[in-house]
Design a protein that fits this description.
single chain; about 80 residues; mainly alpha; transmembrane helix; sodium:proton antiporter activity
Length: about 80
C-alpha cells in the first residue's frame, strides 16, 4: 500500500513541477512551488514509514520550514520587485 502512495506522490510531484515550469503567471508558479514542497515533504514522511527510520522525519521537518520561508520570500519579491527586509 505504501508503494502506491509513493507512486501517487511521485506523479503529483511531476505534475507540480510541470506547473512550476509552464505556469502561465508568476503567482501560479509560486503556488505550484508551494504545493510541490508540500508533496515532497509528504513523500519524505512516507519514506520514513517505509524504511522505519526517523531521520527522514527530521529532514522532512527541516525541509518544510525552509520551503515555507522560501515561498514567503518569493511572494514578497514578486510583489514588490525587490526585497524590502
Amino acid at each position: 500500500m505504501i508503494y502506491l502512495v509513493l507512486w501517487g506522490l511521485g506523479l503529483s510531484a511531476l505534475l507540480g513541477f510541470w506547473r512550476v515550469i509552464v505556469g502561465p503567471t508568476v503567482p501560479d508558479r509560486i503556488v505550484a512551488a508551494d504545493t510541490l514542497s508540500t508533496i515532497l515533504t509528504t513523500f519524505l514522511a512516507a519514506l520514513a514509514l517505509l524504511f522505519d527510520n526517523t531521520v527522514f522525519l527530521d529532514v522532512a521537518l527541516a525541509f518544510a520550514v525552509l520551503s515555507f520561508a522560501d515561498v514567503l520570500i518569493m511572494a514578497k519579491y514578486f510583489e514588490h520587485g525587490e526585497l524590502h527586509l
